[in-house]
Amino acid sequence: MIHNNLSTLMGAKRISIAEVSRIAGVRYETVHKLYHDKNKGIEFETLNKLCWALECTPNDILMYIPDQKTE
Length: 71
What we know:
The chain is mainly alpha-helical. The chain has one domain: 434 Repressor (Amino-terminal Domain) (Orthogonal Bundle). The protein is 55% helix and 8% strand. Strands 1-2 form a two-stranded antiparallel sheet. It is elongated.
């Protein structure tokens, strides 16, 4: 499972959705959906812009958590 940490990262940096949208050049709605974890995916171009705007890496925004195996 991939966990989205964007809201936590933005909170730690005390930056708003509107400000990230403006700095990154990404639509407000896109950042809003990512912030509230309402999306099903993210384009590499968008991820690249967010990483640049937030001065972070994709690992800071997205985290892999292994699914529990059911036997």
